[in-house]
Amino acid sequence: MRCVDFWSINQFLHLTRLYWPGALAFCPRKSQVEVIVSAFPEQKLPFWTAVVCVFLLAIGSGCNRSNPYLTATPSGFLGPTGAPVPSPDVTAQIAELERRARLLDENNRQLTTQLAQSQQQMQLFRERSELMQRQVQDVGNQLQQSRLANAQSSQQLRGLSDQVQSVQSNQSRKGGAKLTANTSNRVAGEPLRDLGYPVEDEGGVIRLRVPADQLFQPGSAQLTPSAASILDRIAESLRRSYPKQRIAIEGHTDNSTLYGGAFASNHQLAAAQSNAVLDHFTKRNQMPSSQLFTLAHGENYPLGDNQSPTSRASNRRIEFVIYSESF
User: Fold this and answer.
1) How many domains does the chain have?
2) What is the DSSP string of 197-224?
3) For 141-150, 173-182, 293-302, which range has the lowest pLDDT when averaged over its residues?
4) Of 34, 182, 251, 285, which is the most exposed, with the fewest CB atoms less than 10 Å away?
């Protein structure tokens, strides 16, 4: 049932004013009770008039409770559909909250993506670290093996060096014959000291060193004119003091490079010079060829460091090596 408002009450009273005793003055701004009291200031209403007034009061007082358009809400009145009508401030706050919610969702998605990428990078770094550790371990194992191999090589090299020194000091070869020093019949180098050249005693092996510059032209195997007298004196001393001992004629040079000439290397030059001395001893001095043999060492056994003319001159030499073994 539709609610009756004050305007309807006013119209009803106006139309029925002739039937009401007393003067009726209605003011829309007064309440329903004040309107009725002013209409009956001194008289009592009849029964039917009282019933009509109570009915109108009941309808007027229930209008505010049943009218959906007059129901108050925190943000205003309800609309025609029954939904609350928000105020502009509340609408702005809701929009701001929705914007912040969308922003938080976007940040959450970005953080999730970054976290996944970070986990992938950590996994990649972990794999690289494991690979580098394996490589370092492999390199360490190889280094350890290299050190062991180097130590074994050093031992072998020292053993070979000892063997070479022993062979050089105690034996010599010509053809397939092996010469071994006879320590029970050692030779002495005293008879050779009168020649005026250095003499060394190496455990029963005598070495007589003669400068090659006194015997040969520079860089050649051609004897100088004064070389004949020097070799004659040496041959006479050898025949007199060591008639039965094997004698080696060794050729030594410096490390100078040979340019042109008849020899391509210092080893060939040393071989040619030692052969020239052997020919002089066998042809001019009539020494037995079975007693003599030659060795060419070239620049392999220098006495000096080849850094100065004096040092290089000391390396150019002919050595006569007398062994205790007889021929």
Assistant:
1) 3
2) S-EEE-SS-EEEEEEGGGTB-TTS-PBP
3) 173-182
4) 34
Distance of CA 262 to the CA centre of its chain: 55
On whether residue 166 sits in a domain, the answer given is no
- Provide the pLDDT for residue 68: 47
In this prediction, residue 247 carries a pLDDT of 94
Last residue of a domain, one of 77, 110, 137: 77
Do 320 and 238 contact (CB within 8 A), yes or no?
A: yes
Residues 60-82 have a mean pLDDT of: 49
What's the pLDDT tens digit per position in 2-33? Answer: 444 555 666 666 556 555 554 444 444 444 44
pLDDT at 128 over 80: yes
pLDDT at res. 277: 95
Distance CA(114)–CA(108), nearest Å, equals: 10
Query: Which range of residues forms the domain containing residue 102?
Result: 86-126
Number of Cβ within 10 Å of residue 29's Cβ equals 6
Q: Is residue 205 located within the same domain as residue 259?
A: yes
The token pair that represents 69 in the structure block: 């358009």
- 42, 93: one domain: no
Dihedrals φ, ψ of 209, to 5°? -105, 130
71 lies in the same domain as 193: no
- Separation CA 127–CA 29 (nearest Å): 89
Indicate whether 58 and 90 sit together in one domain.
no
Residue among 278, 217, 290, 283 at smallest CA distance from 251:
278
C-alpha distances in Å from residue 134, one per residue of 142, 225, 246: 12, 75, 64
Confidence at residue 152, expressed as pLDDT on a 0 to 100 scale: 75
How would you classify residue 43: left for phi > 0, otherwise alpha for psi between -120 and 50, otherwise beta? Answer: beta
- CA 94, CA 114: separation in Å to the nearest integer? 30
